[in-house]
């Protein structure tokens, strides 16, 4: 039996009616003692990811059970270790750590041995069945939290726990080389704007694609070119514009949206041996049919990036700590999460929303 910690109250955001509405509520809960192998983390900030919206609406394909009522969401948290469970010595008390989408991986199954911790056969996901980072105190597996470099702003570090590491891993898996053109679909969003920055930090040249209102924002993130996707009725015209700007097609297309139309555009804009990286999942996952003739003829690749492993997170944080990555964010309060979800669904957010977990 785990004892609650006396004298502390944990304010947490729960999903009131998962699958039915975006309604959330801030509640007070006891703070639990960490058990063996665990640490207690006092969280300061949590990023809000589109996957949180999906968990709240039970809209993520392939989940075994629906998100339960009362689930504490969130998977981009940063804070300080304030207590060790029995047997734990690291990370030290007082150190800054991050909590990721993968709350815990066994590190011994075949997928983990491949380095695919996000596909661990014994995976635990923060904010789905495991209480996530939309709370002030979070129990976490000691060997799976991420040390945060000292010189990194804690709020800006939060979105790197999922959004940052996902786009970094996508670019790394695509084999981005200096000078390569990269097309980023959904470039003005949480993932997309970090994608622009990581692609540039890795030596790429970026064509940002989004709605026209995000043009200035994408250029402020150092995009080389911008395409307003609303100005085109025909998918082939978007691809033709990308090929014109990149002198024949992009080496990598990062698909950060959930639009099947954008998938067709992203695939059609590749150059010889180009790679489409699937990140966003369309409502109808069968809606994208690649041209297999082009795929074989041009030796194209389609790969995916779910999120990264511990090495990927370390590398993505290292680039940020050296000043190459600056997440664009707005701070919101815990009781604003429902409205944040609605704004995200409407595509109104530039960059990332970060919840200040101390200001309820
Ligand atoms: Zn996420
Ligand atoms: Zn595993």
UniProtKB/TrEMBL annotation:
Q: Name one Pfam family in it.
A: ADH_zinc_N
Q: Has the keyword GTP-binding been applied to this entry?
A: no
Ordered alphabetically, the record's keywords are:
Metal-binding, NAD, Oxidoreductase, Zinc
Q: Taking every annotated instance into account, which residue ranges of this chain make up the domain Enoyl reductase (ER)?
A: 19-355
What is the similarity comment for this entry?
Belongs to the zinc-containing alcohol dehydrogenase family.
PROSITE patterns the UniProt entry points to: ADH_ZINC
What this protein is called in its record is Enoyl reductase (ER) domain-containing protein
Please name the Gene3D superfamilies in this protein's record. Medium-chain alcohol dehydrogenases, catalytic domain, NAD(P)-binding Rossmann-like Domain
Q: Which GO terms describe its cellular component?
A: cytoplasm
InterPro entries linked: ADH-like_C (IPR013149), ADH-like_N (IPR013154), ADH_Zn_CS (IPR002328), ER (IPR020843), GroES-like_sf (IPR011032), NAD(P)-bd_dom_sf (IPR036291)
Q: Which SMART domains match?
A: PKS_ER (SM00829)
Name what cofactor the protein needs: Zn(2+)
In its UniProt record, a GO molecular function of this protein is:
alcohol dehydrogenase (NAD+) activity
